[in-house]
Amino acid sequence: MKKRTPLSLLSVALVASVSLAGCAGTKDSGGAAGGSSQPSGNTQQGSASGGATDGGKILIATQTPLSGNQSSLGDAIKTGAEYALNLRKEEFKKLGFDLQLFPQDDQADPKIGVANAEMLISNPDVLGVVGHLNSGVAIPSSVKYEEGKLVMVSPANTAVKLTEEGKKTVHRICARDDAQGPKAAIYAKNSLGVKTAFLIHDKTAYGQGLADQVKAQFEKDGVQVLGYEGITQGEKDYSAVLNQAVAKSPDIIFFGGLYPEGGILVKQAREKGYKGYFMGGDGLDSSDMIKIAGDAVDGVVFTSVAGDVTQTEEGKKWAEEYKKATNKPLETYSVYGYDSMNVILNGVLEAIKANGGKKPTREQVLEAVHKTKDFQGQFTKVTFDDKGDNISADVFIYKYEKGKDRSTFVGKAE
User: Fold this and answer.
1) Right CATH for 178-304+397-412 from 3.40.50.150, 2.40.70.10, 3.40.50.2300, 3.50.50.60
2) Please, are residues 169 and 145 in contact by the beta-carbon 8 Å criterion?
3) pLDDT digits (tens, 9 = 90+) for 156-173
4) Distances from the Cα of 389 to the Cαs of 93, 104, 173, 280, in angstroms?
Protein backbone atom coordinates (compact mmCIF):
# COMPACT_ATOMS: atom_id res chain seq x y z
CA MET A 1 0.00 0.00 0.00
CA LYS A 2 1.10 3.55 -0.68
CA LYS A 3 1.99 5.61 2.36
CA ARG A 4 0.13 8.89 2.12
CA THR A 5 0.44 12.13 3.96
CA PRO A 6 -2.72 14.20 4.56
CA LEU A 7 -1.80 16.32 1.54
CA SER A 8 -1.41 13.19 -0.58
CA LEU A 9 -4.85 12.00 0.54
CA LEU A 10 -6.31 15.33 -0.48
CA SER A 11 -4.67 14.89 -3.90
CA VAL A 12 -6.14 11.46 -4.44
CA ALA A 13 -9.59 12.55 -3.30
CA LEU A 14 -9.57 15.50 -5.66
CA VAL A 15 -8.45 13.42 -8.66
CA ALA A 16 -11.10 10.83 -7.92
CA SER A 17 -13.89 13.40 -7.60
CA VAL A 18 -12.92 15.11 -10.84
CA SER A 19 -12.73 11.78 -12.68
CA LEU A 20 -16.13 10.68 -11.43
CA ALA A 21 -17.58 13.96 -12.56
CA GLY A 22 -16.60 13.01 -16.12
CA CYS A 23 -13.68 15.41 -16.51
CA ALA A 24 -10.90 14.15 -18.31
CA GLY A 25 10.44 4.49 -24.39
CA THR A 26 14.35 6.18 -26.12
CA LYS A 27 15.26 6.49 -26.55
CA ASP A 28 17.47 8.76 -28.22
CA SER A 29 18.33 10.96 -31.12
CA GLY A 30 22.06 11.11 -31.41
CA GLY A 31 21.87 14.16 -33.66
CA ALA A 32 19.53 16.82 -35.01
CA ALA A 33 16.58 14.67 -36.04
CA GLY A 34 14.41 17.26 -37.68
CA GLY A 35 15.85 19.93 -35.43
CA SER A 36 17.79 23.15 -35.82
CA SER A 37 20.68 24.83 -34.06
CA GLN A 38 18.40 27.24 -32.21
CA PRO A 39 15.93 26.47 -29.42
CA SER A 40 12.33 26.63 -30.48
CA GLY A 41 10.72 25.50 -27.25
CA ASN A 42 6.97 25.85 -27.12
CA THR A 43 6.57 28.25 -24.24
CA GLN A 44 2.80 28.35 -24.51
CA GLN A 45 1.44 27.74 -21.02
CA GLY A 46 -1.44 25.45 -20.24
CA SER A 47 -4.77 27.10 -19.59
CA ALA A 48 -4.62 28.26 -15.99
CA SER A 49 -7.83 28.77 -14.04
CA GLY A 50 -7.89 32.32 -12.77
CA GLY A 51 -4.99 34.68 -12.30
CA ALA A 52 -1.91 34.42 -10.14
CA THR A 53 -2.72 33.72 -6.49
CA ASP A 54 -1.10 34.94 -3.28
CA GLY A 55 1.44 32.12 -3.12
CA GLY A 56 2.72 32.84 -6.61
CA LYS A 57 3.13 30.86 -9.81
CA ILE A 58 4.44 27.30 -10.03
CA LEU A 59 5.50 26.04 -13.45
CA ILE A 60 6.15 22.40 -14.25
CA ALA A 61 7.85 21.93 -17.62
CA THR A 62 7.77 19.10 -20.11
CA GLN A 63 10.64 18.46 -22.52
CA THR A 64 9.79 16.18 -25.45
CA PRO A 65 9.70 16.36 -29.26
CA LEU A 66 6.48 18.15 -30.17
CA SER A 67 7.48 18.56 -33.82
CA GLY A 68 9.37 16.36 -36.25
CA ASN A 69 9.08 12.65 -36.93
CA GLN A 70 9.14 11.62 -33.24
CA SER A 71 6.35 13.96 -32.14
CA SER A 72 3.79 11.18 -31.76
CA LEU A 73 5.45 9.85 -28.62
CA GLY A 74 6.63 13.27 -27.47
CA ASP A 75 3.13 14.70 -27.60
CA ALA A 76 1.73 11.65 -25.78
CA ILE A 77 4.06 12.30 -22.84
CA LYS A 78 3.26 16.01 -22.81
CA THR A 79 -0.49 15.39 -23.03
CA GLY A 80 -0.43 12.82 -20.23
CA ALA A 81 1.52 15.21 -18.02
CA GLU A 82 -0.84 18.07 -18.86
CA TYR A 83 -3.88 15.95 -18.02
CA ALA A 84 -2.45 15.17 -14.58
CA LEU A 85 -1.62 18.81 -13.93
CA ASN A 86 -5.04 20.06 -14.99
CA LEU A 87 -6.74 17.68 -12.56
CA ARG A 88 -4.77 19.20 -9.70
CA LYS A 89 -4.87 22.92 -10.48
CA GLU A 90 -7.71 23.57 -8.09
CA GLU A 91 -5.90 21.73 -5.31
CA PHE A 92 -2.91 24.05 -5.67
CA LYS A 93 -5.14 27.09 -6.01
CA LYS A 94 -6.70 26.33 -2.61
CA LEU A 95 -3.18 26.39 -1.17
CA GLY A 96 -2.58 29.79 -2.79
CA PHE A 97 -0.62 28.78 -5.92
CA ASP A 98 -1.19 29.22 -9.64
CA LEU A 99 -0.09 25.89 -11.14
CA GLN A 100 0.71 25.92 -14.86
CA LEU A 101 2.22 23.65 -17.49
CA PHE A 102 5.29 24.95 -19.32
CA PRO A 103 5.78 22.65 -22.34
CA GLN A 104 8.99 22.75 -24.37
CA ASP A 105 9.70 21.21 -27.77
CA ASP A 106 13.17 19.65 -27.71
CA GLN A 107 12.69 18.32 -31.28
CA ALA A 108 14.62 15.15 -30.29
CA ASP A 109 17.74 17.30 -30.71
CA PRO A 110 20.36 17.44 -27.93
CA LYS A 111 21.31 21.02 -28.76
CA ILE A 112 17.74 22.23 -28.48
CA GLY A 113 17.15 20.20 -25.33
CA VAL A 114 20.17 21.80 -23.67
CA ALA A 115 19.16 25.30 -24.79
CA ASN A 116 15.64 24.72 -23.42
CA ALA A 117 17.12 23.41 -20.17
CA GLU A 118 19.21 26.58 -19.81
CA MET A 119 16.07 28.66 -20.26
CA LEU A 120 14.18 26.57 -17.70
CA ILE A 121 16.79 26.87 -14.97
CA SER A 122 16.87 30.65 -15.52
CA ASN A 123 13.15 30.88 -14.67
CA PRO A 124 12.69 30.69 -10.87
CA ASP A 125 9.04 29.67 -11.20
CA VAL A 126 9.98 26.35 -12.84
CA LEU A 127 10.15 23.71 -10.10
CA GLY A 128 10.30 20.45 -12.08
CA VAL A 129 10.60 18.83 -15.50
CA VAL A 130 8.77 15.84 -16.97
CA GLY A 131 10.99 14.46 -19.73
CA HIS A 132 12.65 13.55 -21.95
CA LEU A 133 11.65 11.02 -24.60
CA ASN A 134 15.18 10.62 -25.98
CA SER A 135 18.07 9.51 -23.78
CA GLY A 136 20.52 11.32 -26.07
CA VAL A 137 18.68 14.55 -25.29
CA ALA A 138 18.16 13.83 -21.61
CA ILE A 139 21.81 13.07 -20.80
CA PRO A 140 23.30 16.43 -21.90
CA SER A 141 20.23 18.37 -20.70
CA SER A 142 20.58 16.81 -17.26
CA VAL A 143 23.91 18.62 -16.87
CA LYS A 144 21.97 21.90 -16.89
CA TYR A 145 19.26 20.60 -14.54
CA GLU A 146 21.99 19.63 -12.10
CA GLU A 147 23.46 23.13 -12.27
CA GLY A 148 20.05 24.64 -11.54
CA LYS A 149 19.03 21.99 -8.96
CA LEU A 150 15.92 21.42 -11.07
CA VAL A 151 14.42 17.97 -10.53
CA MET A 152 13.72 15.84 -13.61
CA VAL A 153 11.43 12.79 -13.70
CA SER A 154 11.55 10.84 -16.95
CA PRO A 155 8.72 8.63 -18.17
CA ALA A 156 10.74 7.06 -20.99
CA ASN A 157 14.55 7.39 -20.87
CA THR A 158 16.17 3.95 -20.66
CA ALA A 159 19.89 4.56 -21.28
CA VAL A 160 21.92 3.16 -18.38
CA LYS A 161 24.28 6.14 -18.45
CA LEU A 162 21.54 8.61 -17.47
CA THR A 163 21.43 7.60 -13.81
CA GLU A 164 24.98 6.28 -13.56
CA GLU A 165 26.61 9.72 -13.75
CA GLY A 166 25.75 10.58 -10.15
CA LYS A 167 23.43 13.54 -10.76
CA LYS A 168 21.07 14.15 -7.85
CA THR A 169 18.39 15.79 -10.01
CA VAL A 170 17.86 12.87 -12.42
CA HIS A 171 15.02 10.37 -11.89
CA ARG A 172 13.01 7.98 -14.06
CA ILE A 173 9.94 5.83 -13.42
CA CYS A 174 10.70 3.34 -16.23
CA ALA A 175 13.17 0.44 -16.44
CA ARG A 176 16.70 0.74 -17.88
CA ASP A 177 18.21 -0.84 -20.99
CA ASP A 178 20.10 -3.33 -18.85
CA ALA A 179 16.70 -4.69 -17.80
CA GLN A 180 14.87 -4.28 -21.11
CA GLY A 181 17.56 -5.71 -23.40
CA PRO A 182 18.17 -8.99 -21.58
CA LYS A 183 14.44 -9.62 -21.13
CA ALA A 184 13.87 -9.01 -24.86
CA ALA A 185 16.56 -11.54 -25.73
CA ILE A 186 15.26 -14.09 -23.23
CA TYR A 187 11.72 -13.73 -24.60
CA ALA A 188 12.96 -14.16 -28.17
CA LYS A 189 14.83 -17.35 -27.27
CA ASN A 190 12.33 -18.96 -24.91
CA SER A 191 8.97 -17.82 -26.34
CA LEU A 192 9.77 -17.36 -30.03
CA GLY A 193 12.31 -20.16 -30.22
CA VAL A 194 14.96 -18.21 -32.12
CA LYS A 195 18.42 -19.70 -32.56
CA THR A 196 19.99 -17.10 -34.87
CA ALA A 197 19.75 -13.30 -34.89
CA PHE A 198 20.84 -10.26 -36.89
CA LEU A 199 21.01 -7.00 -34.93
CA ILE A 200 20.62 -3.49 -36.34
CA HIS A 201 20.84 -0.23 -34.37
CA ASP A 202 20.53 3.49 -35.14
CA LYS A 203 23.92 4.51 -33.66
CA THR A 204 22.27 6.44 -30.81
CA ALA A 205 22.64 6.16 -27.04
CA TYR A 206 19.24 4.49 -26.83
CA GLY A 207 19.30 2.31 -29.92
CA GLN A 208 22.87 1.06 -29.72
CA GLY A 209 22.70 0.74 -25.95
CA LEU A 210 19.64 -1.49 -26.22
CA ALA A 211 21.10 -3.56 -29.07
CA ASP A 212 24.30 -4.08 -27.07
CA GLN A 213 22.31 -5.48 -24.16
CA VAL A 214 20.31 -7.79 -26.43
CA LYS A 215 23.48 -8.99 -28.17
CA ALA A 216 25.19 -9.78 -24.87
CA GLN A 217 22.22 -11.81 -23.64
CA PHE A 218 21.90 -13.69 -26.95
CA GLU A 219 25.57 -14.65 -26.76
CA LYS A 220 25.19 -15.70 -23.14
CA ASP A 221 22.20 -17.92 -23.99
CA GLY A 222 23.74 -19.51 -27.08
CA VAL A 223 21.75 -17.66 -29.74
CA GLN A 224 24.08 -17.17 -32.72
CA VAL A 225 24.52 -13.51 -33.71
CA LEU A 226 24.92 -13.46 -37.51
CA GLY A 227 25.41 -9.73 -37.84
CA TYR A 228 25.53 -6.43 -35.95
CA GLU A 229 25.20 -3.25 -38.03
CA GLY A 230 24.36 0.42 -37.60
CA ILE A 231 22.18 2.65 -39.76
CA THR A 232 21.74 6.42 -40.00
CA GLN A 233 18.54 8.03 -38.74
CA GLY A 234 16.42 9.83 -41.32
CA GLU A 235 17.34 7.78 -44.39
CA LYS A 236 14.65 6.21 -46.57
CA ASP A 237 16.43 3.22 -48.04
CA TYR A 238 18.16 0.63 -45.88
CA SER A 239 18.81 -1.90 -48.62
CA ALA A 240 22.55 -2.13 -47.89
CA VAL A 241 22.11 -3.51 -44.38
CA LEU A 242 18.92 -5.42 -45.13
CA ASN A 243 20.50 -7.25 -48.05
CA GLN A 244 23.12 -8.56 -45.60
CA ALA A 245 20.49 -9.56 -43.07
CA VAL A 246 18.10 -11.26 -45.49
CA ALA A 247 20.95 -13.17 -47.16
CA LYS A 248 21.85 -14.75 -43.80
CA SER A 249 18.22 -15.72 -43.12
CA PRO A 250 18.22 -15.20 -39.35
CA ASP A 251 15.35 -16.38 -37.19
CA ILE A 252 14.98 -12.80 -35.94
CA ILE A 253 16.04 -9.28 -36.89
CA PHE A 254 16.30 -7.12 -33.78
CA PHE A 255 16.32 -3.35 -34.23
CA GLY A 256 17.53 -0.94 -31.57
CA GLY A 257 15.99 2.38 -32.56
CA LEU A 258 12.79 4.33 -33.10
CA TYR A 259 9.62 3.82 -35.13
CA PRO A 260 10.40 6.17 -38.07
CA GLU A 261 13.32 3.93 -39.07
CA GLY A 262 11.81 0.74 -37.64
CA GLY A 263 8.72 1.05 -39.82
CA ILE A 264 10.83 1.46 -42.94
CA LEU A 265 13.13 -1.43 -41.99
CA VAL A 266 10.39 -3.98 -41.48
CA LYS A 267 8.54 -2.88 -44.61
CA GLN A 268 11.65 -3.15 -46.77
CA ALA A 269 12.71 -6.42 -45.13
CA ARG A 270 9.35 -8.01 -46.00
CA GLU A 271 9.58 -6.66 -49.54
CA LYS A 272 12.94 -8.43 -49.83
CA GLY A 273 11.33 -11.71 -48.80
CA TYR A 274 12.34 -11.91 -45.15
CA LYS A 275 9.99 -14.32 -43.34
CA GLY A 276 11.45 -14.39 -39.81
CA TYR A 277 10.60 -12.42 -36.68
CA PHE A 278 11.17 -8.67 -36.45
CA MET A 279 11.62 -7.29 -32.94
CA GLY A 280 12.62 -4.06 -31.26
CA GLY A 281 12.36 -2.08 -28.05
CA ASP A 282 9.92 0.57 -26.92
CA GLY A 283 11.19 2.89 -29.64
CA LEU A 284 8.77 1.02 -31.93
CA ASP A 285 5.86 1.80 -29.62
CA SER A 286 3.78 4.31 -31.60
CA SER A 287 0.61 4.25 -33.65
CA ASP A 288 2.69 5.92 -36.37
CA MET A 289 4.65 2.66 -36.69
CA ILE A 290 1.51 1.17 -38.26
CA LYS A 291 1.20 4.04 -40.73
CA ILE A 292 4.83 3.73 -41.82
CA ALA A 293 5.08 -0.06 -42.08
CA GLY A 294 1.59 -0.76 -43.44
CA ASP A 295 0.66 -4.45 -43.51
CA ALA A 296 4.30 -5.37 -42.86
CA VAL A 297 3.75 -4.38 -39.23
CA ASP A 298 1.81 -7.61 -38.71
CA GLY A 299 3.69 -9.83 -36.25
CA VAL A 300 6.28 -7.24 -35.18
CA VAL A 301 7.12 -7.79 -31.51
CA PHE A 302 8.59 -5.23 -29.14
CA THR A 303 9.45 -4.81 -25.51
CA SER A 304 8.44 -1.72 -23.62
CA VAL A 305 9.28 -0.25 -20.25
CA ALA A 306 5.69 1.05 -20.20
CA GLY A 307 2.75 -1.23 -19.46
CA ASP A 308 -0.81 -1.19 -20.78
CA VAL A 309 -3.07 0.78 -18.47
CA THR A 310 -6.19 -0.70 -20.10
CA GLN A 311 -5.55 -4.18 -18.67
CA THR A 312 -7.69 -3.36 -15.63
CA GLU A 313 -11.23 -2.01 -15.36
CA GLU A 314 -9.94 1.02 -13.45
CA GLY A 315 -7.36 1.59 -16.18
CA LYS A 316 -9.96 1.32 -18.93
CA LYS A 317 -12.06 3.94 -17.18
CA TRP A 318 -9.03 6.22 -16.84
CA ALA A 319 -8.19 5.75 -20.53
CA GLU A 320 -11.71 6.73 -21.62
CA GLU A 321 -11.63 9.82 -19.40
CA TYR A 322 -8.19 10.70 -20.78
CA LYS A 323 -9.33 10.45 -24.40
CA LYS A 324 -12.50 12.42 -23.66
CA ALA A 325 -10.60 15.21 -21.91
CA THR A 326 -7.68 15.49 -24.33
CA ASN A 327 -9.36 14.49 -27.60
CA LYS A 328 -6.19 12.54 -28.44
CA PRO A 329 -5.46 8.84 -28.89
CA LEU A 330 -4.03 6.91 -25.99
CA GLU A 331 -0.39 5.97 -26.50
CA THR A 332 1.49 3.69 -24.11
CA TYR A 333 3.56 6.58 -22.74
CA SER A 334 0.52 8.78 -22.08
CA VAL A 335 0.03 7.25 -18.64
CA TYR A 336 3.76 7.39 -17.90
CA GLY A 337 3.70 11.13 -18.59
CA TYR A 338 0.71 11.30 -16.26
CA ASP A 339 2.44 9.34 -13.49
CA SER A 340 5.70 11.30 -13.85
CA MET A 341 3.83 14.57 -13.43
CA ASN A 342 2.04 13.31 -10.33
CA VAL A 343 5.34 12.20 -8.79
CA ILE A 344 6.63 15.76 -9.22
CA LEU A 345 3.42 17.38 -8.00
CA ASN A 346 3.35 15.21 -4.89
CA GLY A 347 6.95 16.26 -4.24
CA VAL A 348 5.99 19.92 -4.63
CA LEU A 349 3.13 19.46 -2.16
CA GLU A 350 5.43 17.82 0.37
CA ALA A 351 7.90 20.68 -0.09
CA ILE A 352 5.16 23.29 0.42
CA LYS A 353 4.16 21.54 3.62
CA ALA A 354 7.77 21.39 4.85
CA ASN A 355 8.16 25.09 4.02
CA GLY A 356 5.25 26.18 6.20
CA GLY A 357 2.81 26.57 3.33
CA LYS A 358 5.07 28.92 1.38
CA LYS A 359 6.43 28.42 -2.13
CA PRO A 360 9.32 25.96 -1.83
CA THR A 361 12.80 26.20 -3.27
CA ARG A 362 13.97 23.87 -6.01
CA GLU A 363 16.24 22.15 -3.49
CA GLN A 364 13.24 21.41 -1.27
CA VAL A 365 11.26 20.00 -4.21
CA LEU A 366 14.25 17.93 -5.31
CA GLU A 367 14.65 16.47 -1.83
CA ALA A 368 10.94 15.59 -1.60
CA VAL A 369 10.82 13.96 -5.05
CA HIS A 370 13.99 11.98 -4.40
CA LYS A 371 12.42 10.56 -1.23
CA THR A 372 9.42 9.20 -3.18
CA LYS A 373 8.56 5.78 -1.77
CA ASP A 374 5.69 3.40 -2.56
CA PHE A 375 3.87 6.03 -4.61
CA GLN A 376 1.12 4.26 -6.55
CA GLY A 377 0.53 6.07 -9.82
CA GLN A 378 -2.27 5.40 -12.23
CA PHE A 379 -0.21 2.55 -13.65
CA THR A 380 3.20 2.17 -12.06
CA LYS A 381 4.41 2.14 -8.47
CA VAL A 382 7.40 4.41 -7.82
CA THR A 383 10.19 4.15 -5.26
CA PHE A 384 13.46 5.85 -6.21
CA ASP A 385 16.82 4.38 -5.23
CA ASP A 386 19.85 6.58 -4.55
CA LYS A 387 20.61 6.87 -8.28
CA GLY A 388 17.07 7.99 -9.16
CA ASP A 389 15.99 4.67 -10.70
CA ASN A 390 12.58 3.21 -9.90
CA ILE A 391 13.02 -0.10 -8.09
CA SER A 392 9.46 -1.11 -9.07
CA ALA A 393 9.94 -0.72 -12.85
CA ASP A 394 8.98 -3.63 -15.14
CA VAL A 395 9.40 -4.66 -18.79
CA PHE A 396 6.46 -5.69 -20.99
CA ILE A 397 5.86 -7.43 -24.33
CA TYR A 398 3.64 -6.13 -27.14
CA LYS A 399 2.97 -7.11 -30.75
CA TYR A 400 1.40 -5.52 -33.79
CA GLU A 401 -1.42 -7.21 -35.66
CA LYS A 402 -2.72 -6.32 -39.12
CA GLY A 403 -5.97 -4.40 -39.04
CA LYS A 404 -5.54 -2.99 -35.53
CA ASP A 405 -4.85 0.69 -34.93
CA ARG A 406 -2.55 0.11 -31.95
CA SER A 407 -0.32 -2.61 -30.57
CA THR A 408 -1.63 -5.57 -28.59
CA PHE A 409 -0.43 -6.20 -25.04
CA VAL A 410 1.07 -9.69 -24.62
CA GLY A 411 2.17 -9.61 -20.98
CA LYS A 412 4.98 -8.90 -18.56
CA ALA A 413 8.43 -10.02 -19.69
CA GLU A 414 9.81 -12.52 -17.20
Assistant:
1) 3.40.50.2300
2) yes
3) 999 999 999 999 999 999
4) 31, 24, 7, 23
